[in-house]
Amino acid sequence: MTAACKKTCDDYQWSIGPSLPSSKKIRIHYSFDFAQQMHFPSNPLQPGPIYFLTPQKCGLFGISCEGLQNQVNFLIDGGVSSGKGSNEVISYLHHFLTHFGF
């Protein structure tokens, strides 16, 4: 499925970015998922926890078109995140497909 998607993207010379709506009979394969929460500031070489400083939480939701080697990431501030439910996923997918979909 991903090989067919790559061939379709190569045939139409697509890239991630805004595109006009089309009625072509093609198949595009997208993958998406939440990553673990990240904390920033972050220092992977730090020997212990940050003293008297609570790092800010940040959620990460990524969407990738399997035919291209590009990915769009949504960074979600922990203070405004309402979870990882279906409403959030649909909102991110809608935004992605409206602005970056083929």
Task: Record the SSE blueprint.
Blueprint: H1 2-12, E1 30-34, E2 38-40, E3 56-65, E4 70-77, H2 86-99
Give a structural overview.
With 102 residues, this protein is α+β, with helices and mostly antiparallel strands. The radius of gyration is 17 Å and the shape is elongated. Strand 3 and strand 4 form a beta hairpin. The longest helix has 14 residues. It has one domain. Strands 1, 2, 3 and 4 form a 4-stranded antiparallel sheet that branches. It is 25% helix and 25% strand. The chain has 2 helices and 4 strands; from the N terminus they run αββββα.
Brief descriptors of the model:
single chain; 102 residues; four-stranded antiparallel beta sheet; 25% helix; elongated
Number-wise, the strands total 4
User: How many domain regions?
Assistant: 1
How is the biggest beta sheet arranged?
4 strands, antiparallel
Uncertain spans, ≥5 residues at pLDDT below 50? none
Supply Rg: 17 Å
Q: Shape from CA axes?
A: elongated
Question: Care to give the gist of this entry?
Answer:
The protein has helices spanning 2-12, 86-99, and strands spanning 30-34, 38-40, 56-65, 70-77.
